[in-house]
Amino acid sequence: MRRRRQPSFMQRWSRYLIGGIATTGAALTGYLTYVKLSNGDAACPIKGCSQVLSSDYATIFGQPLALFGCLAYLSMVAFALVPLFIAEETQAELRQKLDDWTWTLLFWGGAAMTVFSGYLMYLLTTEFKSFCIYCVGSALMSTSLLVLAVLGRHWEDVGKLIFQGIIVAMVTLVGTLGVYASVNGNGPVVIERWEAQPTNNPSFEATTESGPAEIALAQHLQEIGATKYSAWWCPHCYAQRQLFGRQAFKSIEAVECDATGTDPDPQACQAAGVRSYPTWVINGTTYPGVMELSELAEVSGYDGPTDFQHSAQTIPQDMPIIQQ
Questions:
Q1: Which helix (H) or strand (E) is 64 found in, with range?
Q2: Does pTM surpass 0.70?
Q3: Ranges of the chain with pLDDT below 70
Q4: Which of 41, 80, 88, 152 is 20 to 30 Å from 282 by CA-CA measure?
Q5: CATH code linked to domain 194-324
């Protein structure tokens, strides 16, 4: 008599592993969704995270990309764990059907998430040229889900599995390119709003006071032709103004990228290749994201006083409430 084939360690525990990884991914993307909707800054030891999360690529159909990622991870949690709650002794047939269907869905979901994450990694290296621990972490988790879905069960028809994987990958890639077509073709788009668009667009002035060092740096940036590209509604742009203070920021050459703002020049922003706000162009080099004044001093060749009064950790960043 043939001995019944015993499942491997991976096959016994893969659903639990998938559930655990997907739960971690849901928690991570849920946190990023909250940060995006609240116009906050994600906790990150490096600057690349803020640059990526504040870019136009971080929004799909007017909603945070992280929200769709959270829903995808929650779906993988459900596919992995729901069959485990069906008693095999009393509902064996239902358990077997759910097991078969959910393994297929786990494979499809893992393949789609891996392809999409791969495209985001491509953007990270080509568009942003920076490192984002949240993006890389999510990509690793997506790939792990796909690997566990493949190794977690005995697939009788490997050729069919490969064919399905190719179809899912092609559909995902085409859909991804379609979603981001406007981003790639038309320059910067609206990436976030602090409040509903008002009738008269205000210019949010800094509330901090400038010291001699801030004023000297601002004048130096003006002399060398440094330009800051921003949008009136952008909280990160407001934080940059707060770093300089009211008096110093008046010397900064600032270009308004939103057509609804005051004296806008969206064509100049598009020509400069602006992808996120704020973006600095200093001596021909582009620097996306909020920059500490010490960083601006270093990259611009400033040699004046550097006893700056403000930093990103000490400035008040809450923008005024827009009155409708």
A1: strand 63-64
A2: no
A3: 1-7, 39-41, 45-48, 89, 182-203, 313-324
A4: 41
A5: 3.40.30.10
